[in-house]
Design a protein that fits this description.
8 helices; 60s Ribosomal Protein L30, Chain: A; 8 strands; alpha/beta
Length: 274
């Protein structure tokens, strides 16, 4: 019971923080508002046609059984909601919360027989998600496998990794083979055309249990040397060697194709502007 009360309190705090609220009180064991409270509700409706309702919370005093009070608080919420429906804006994820006697927070019984409307004023609707702590989820970036390196960098976000295709080294060295030149120059042109782009070049090797000679780092540094030699500022390019700690396929590899996929160079986007 203590855990449930704490959980409900947490929910109410989340709902009421930085928002408006209006309270209406009920007579004992009644789920319809009396004339005074009904008039107060109608007045609130007229003054808040441009506001937006987030939730309606109902509660009771502690007189009566738990089941009776749960039903009574729900009827109170429904009564108020039916008065408001179609007259004031309501969020699509509107919450109807029936607390029953668990919402009794006052020693005065009459103060616990209530319904609370939580809402936002029109002036606050522009920052509705911010007030409610809702973070907009950015759509997942899907980069076509056949996209060019330039297209992949353009579509990528900070933190994403891109494998540099056709980067090959002579066996057990960090010297690049001639067929690597195309990709190296593609990367150079991308860095030249995107002066705010910063990357980390990450080397990976295959086929052995440990990178004893730190070859993966040396290969990453070799690509950085090419970029810096051709005018890219040193601070824009970091390097890291992962050895065999991040294989795509388990080591030892089952096929030459798996070994080739493990033996790779990637770039991670550290910063960029659209």
């Amino acid at each position: 019971m203590k855990f449930l009360y704490s959980f409900l309190s947490f929910i109410l705090i989340q709902i009421t923080f930085a928002q408006e609220q209006m309270t209406f009180y009920f007579d004992n064991n009644k789920f319809e508002l009396n004339k005074v409270e009904s008039s107060k509700l109608q007045k609130w409706i007229l003054e808040n046609k441009t506001s937006k309702i987030l939730s309606i919370t109902g509660s009771t005093d502690e007189v009566g059984s738990i089941g009776f009070n749960d039903t009574l608080s729900q009827k109170r919420v429904s009564h108020v909601f039916n008065q408001i429906k179609g007259k004031v804006k309501i969020r699509p994820d509107f919450k109807s919360i029936s607390l029953g006697e668990k919402g009794a927070t006052s020693k005065i019984k009459a103060e616990n027989r209530k319904v609370i409307i939580h809402y936002l004023l029109e002036k606050d609707l522009a920052k509705e998600n911010e007030i409610l702590g809702i973070k907009e989820v950015e759509p997942e970036v899907v980069i076509p496998e056949d996209a060019t390196l330039a297209e992949k960098v353009k579509l990528s976000k900070v933190g994403m990794k891109i494998t540099l295709k056709n980067i090959n080294f002579y066996q057990n060295t960090f010297a690049t083979m001639p067929e690597s030149q195309g990709t190296l120059y593609d990367l150079l042109f991308i860095m030249q055309n995107n002066p705010d782009l910063k990357i980390e070049i990450q080397g990976h090797i295959c086929c052995i249990d440990k990178d004893y000679r730190n070859l993966s780092l040396d290969r990453a540094k070799q690509i950085k040397r090419f970029l810096v030699y051709n005018g890219i500022q040193d601070y824009r390019v970091k390097t890291k060697g992962f050895g065999v700690t991040q294989p795509i396929h388990p080591i030892p590899e089952a096929t030459p194709e798996q070994a080739a996929e493990n033996r790779r160079v990637e770039i991670e986007i550290l910063s960029k502007t659209r």
